[in-house]
Design a protein that fits this description.
This protein is mostly helical. The protein has helices at 16-42, 47-93, 95-108, 113-135, 147-171, 177-200, 204-232. 81% of the residues lie in helices and 0% in strands. Helix 5 packs antiparallel against helix 6.
Length: 233
């Protein structure tokens, strides 16, 4: 009998760890920096002042994103490790009870009792902690928290995103700066939404519209506040 060669499968869920941080970082970099730039521009700031404010926003935002992601994902990582340590101790003190617990999980998923017990015993014989981490705690290598990866990805993508509105300020004519910044930012956000939707396997149109609506609202509010402040001053 000829054995069929099994081709490796590539699942989109494997991208969740870095994709979330990448999309969040780039989106925040574009939107926060562009909003800051528009606020200063509509308040009557010069090109030099706008660039200083935008650059400061880039540096502060990148550091904030990195620190925030690292702290939040580290908290998740600590929780996961605490659960794994507790499960490791329970496996050592009561292996029979843990095997029964695992088999009941499979029964609840639709496996008959005899098969569930067999599967539980065989999985625990190979990797007891791995079996319980996956099927009892829901912890897998794909979903495992990686604080450093999240921090670096967020900082890098925020920086890349923030550079885009800054480049518009540098090269757009002064009289068209506000219009160019607004249009350019919306185009960048639309592109990011499309890339994020495609990478995550979601609908590109829905992802793009979601980013555009939220981004347009943020830009409009910030520009309005800048106009009011500039008029008051």
């Amino acid at each position: 009998m000829t054995r069929l060669k099994t081709l490796p499968e590539h699942h989109l869920v494997a991208r969740v760890g870095w994709l979330r941080a990448a999309v969040l970082g780039a989106n925040d970099g574009i939107l926060s920096t562009a909003s800051l730039i528009l606020g200063v521009a509509t308040a009557g700031g010069s090109r030099a002042n706008i660039l200083i404010a935008g650059t400061a926003g880039l540096v502060a935002g990148a550091m904030s994103m990195a620190a925030g992601e690292y702290v939040s994902v580290s908290s998740q990582h600590d929780t996961e490790q605490a659960d794994l340590s507790r499960e490791r101790a329970e496996l050592k003190s009561d292996p029979v009870g843990e095997a029964e617990e695992l088999s009941q999980i499979y029964v609840e998923r639709g496996v008959d009792d005899a098969t569930a017990r067999t599967v539980s015993q065989e999985l625990m014989a190979k990797d007891a902690l791995g079996a319980h981490a996956r099927d009892e705690l829901g912890i897998t290598m794909v979903s495992l928290a990686r604080p450093l990866q999240a921090a670096v990805t967020s900082a890098a993508t925020f920086t890349c995103g923030a550079l885009m509105p800054l480049l518009i300020v540098m090269f757009a004519p002064a009289r068209l700066l506000i219009v160019a910044e607004t249009v350019g930012t919306l185009l960048f956000l639309a592109l990011l939404g499309a890339i994020g939707g495609a990478a995550g396997g979601a609908g590109i149109g829905r992802a793009t519209m979601r980013v555009l609506l939220c981004g347009g609202l943020a830009l409009g509010i910030t520009a309005g506040i800048g106009r009011l402040v500039g008029t008051a001053i």
